[in-house]
Amino acid sequence: MPRYFFDTIEDSQIVRDDLGIDMSQLEMRAEAKRVLPSIAVEHPLALDRNEFVVRVRDENGCYVYEVSLILVARLLMA
């Protein structure tokens, strides 16, 4: 079974996954999408528009999949 590494990008900062997980390609795609909301919830919102990205590398270090989430937050004043 192939090993995939899930790098995250938050505010232009790349956090590399050095451990990886052995899983099928279908499982990898589902996992990449699953982690996006938790990243967005745990991350402080610095801007009105925040983009969170998960880029997945294969065992050779090549990016094979990417998912992103854009979160828009605005303070509405009466």
Describe the protein in words:
The model has no long low-confidence stretch (mean pLDDT 90). The protein has one helix at residues 25-42, and strands at residues 3-10, 13-15, 21-22, 49-57, 63-72. It has one domain (3-72). A hairpin with a 2-residue loop joins strand 1 (3-10) and strand 2. Strands 1, 2, 3, 4 and 5 form a five-stranded antiparallel β-sheet that branches. By secondary structure, the protein is an alpha+beta fold.
Give short descriptive properties of this protein.
5 strands; elongated; 5-stranded antiparallel β-sheet; 78 residues; alpha+beta
Rounded average pLDDT: 90
Radius of gyration: 14 Å
Number of DSSP helices?
1
Structural class: alpha+beta
Distance N to C terminus = 55 Å
Strand content: 35-45%
The biggest sheet, with number of strands, parallel, antiparallel or mixed sense and barrel status, is: 5 strands, antiparallel
Question: Stretches where pLDDT falls below 50 for ≥5 residues?
Answer: none
Number of structural units classed as domains: 1
Helical coverage, percent range: 10-25%
* Total number of beta strands: 5
- Structural shape: elongated
Order of helices and strands: EEEHEE
Give a concise summary:
With 78 residues, the chain is α+β, with helices and mostly antiparallel strands. It has one helix at 25-42; strands at residues 3-10, 13-15, 21-22, 49-57, 63-72.
List the helices and strands and how they pair.
Elements: E1 3-10, E2 13-15, E3 21-22, H1 25-42, E4 49-57, E5 63-72
